[in-house]
Amino acid sequence: MKLMSLFAVAALIMGVAVVGPAYAGGSMESDPKSEPKTDEPKKEEPKKEAKKQMDFEAMLKDVDKVVGGVTFNADDMKVFKEKWAAATKELKKDAKFKELKETNVKEAYDQAITVAEYKKWATDNKVSAEDFLKKGMRIILQHVKLEAPDMIKQGREQIDGGRKMLDAYKDKLGEKKYAEQSAQLDDATKMLDGMEKGCALIPDPSADEKKLLEDNKEAIQTAMDSDKDESKSTPPSK
Fold first, then answer.
1. What pLDDT, in 10s, does the model give residues 155-206?
2. Which of 7, 60, 212, 214 qualifies as a cystine partner to 201, CB 3.0-4.6 A?
3. What's the predicted TM-score (pTM) here?
């Protein structure tokens, strides 16, 4: 789901914990001291730009103003499963929406309901542009809220295991490489902390909604995963 990219991260949260460290793939980089010496000067590698970490709390600030008080039933779930991917394809055509979805759900929603392509799609499909979007967002947000605790728990366990392995290879890695990979684990921990705090801002589902979410777990994930960024948007069908 690319409406709010943090939820794509949420769905893959276990990967966040381990993708950074080099040892995750089972290989360790050797200590520079052990590398053969040459008379040739070492070429300086270009510095990689640090990847900005997602701020989940900021992403979900004021989310209750979008989905608070909104409810969904079995009919809404059916419409969501059938139409969500097509709707978000239209939204992706708007550059400002694509930018805002990375930073704040409320601002992304406010922009989304102004997107001409999406509004036309809603009219053509006989749904309310605002109502459909709010209910779809509530379904996704609450799906994430229900799924996140187990994924975060597993992520923390992977980080703990990673730290133990990192410490075991500390001497082989050398101080610099050890510090870099330790910092990556620290960043992964902060991301999980932020996800926990962010999920606390999402309104709880009602008992009926929770059952619908549980019964349609795979279909919701499929709807989320179906909306992948592409180099070119597919033109609308005539």
1. 999 999 999 999 999 999 899 999 999 999 999 999 899 889 888 889 899 9
2. 60
3. 0.71
The per-residue pLDDT for range 138-158, each reduced to its tens digit, is: 999 999 999 999 989 999 999
Count of other CB atoms within 10 angstroms of residue 51? 8
Q: Which of 84, 78, 168, 62 is nearest to 133 (CA)?
A: 84
DSSP state letters, the chain: --SSHHHHHHHTHHHHHHSSSGGGGT--PPPGGGSPP-SSPPPPPPPPPPPPPP-HHHHTTTTHHHHTT----HHHHHHHHHHHHHHHHHHTT-HHHHHHTTT-HHHHHHHHTT-HHHHHHHHHTT--HHHHHHHHHHHHHHHHHHHHHHHHHHHHHHHHHHHHHHHHTHHHH-HHHHHHHHHHHHHHHHHHHHHHHHHHTSPPPPHHHHHHHHHTHHHHHHHHHT----SSPPPPP-
Distance between CA atoms of residues 237 and 199, nearest Å = 37
| Rounded (10°) angle between helices 129-168 and 116-124 | 120
Q: Which residues of the chain have pLDDT under 70?
A: 1-54, 226-238
